[in-house]
Amino acid sequence: MDVEIFWQQFKNAHPEVTTNHHDTYAFGSDADALAHLVKIGRKTATTSALELYEADEPLPYVGEYNVILDGHDQPVCITQTKVTEVVAFDQVTQEHAYHEGENDRTLTSWRQGHRDFFTAEYQAVGRTFNEQIPCLCEVFERVD
Fold it and tell me: Which domains does the chain have, with CATH numbers?
């Protein structure tokens, strides 16, 4: 289904939503699995490397709606951002790792998976990952 049709169907079902703005994205390394975790309510948080946002790329903000895509760029569900905060990689909490909903939901597995992902992302732009990088931690709620 087309993302804009999906969004309009959501708005039609939720007349309290007065904005036309929404972000559209798929999650990192396994978009299908991660979109599924959001859809079933297990994944309610995500983390991005703040330094890897493009200069003209807007950051997520509280109240923003997001159309979550699967690995084939098909819309799966809609979330709304509830919290954003910048935290150093090595200061991300067990609670945030749990809400990311991945693997066994521990901070240890979160750090390993995100360390691997961020290392590759930093290498792709000719930079070096370290454990003090600023991370944009976002908490969201599935709204449709």
Answer: 3-142 (3.10.400.10)
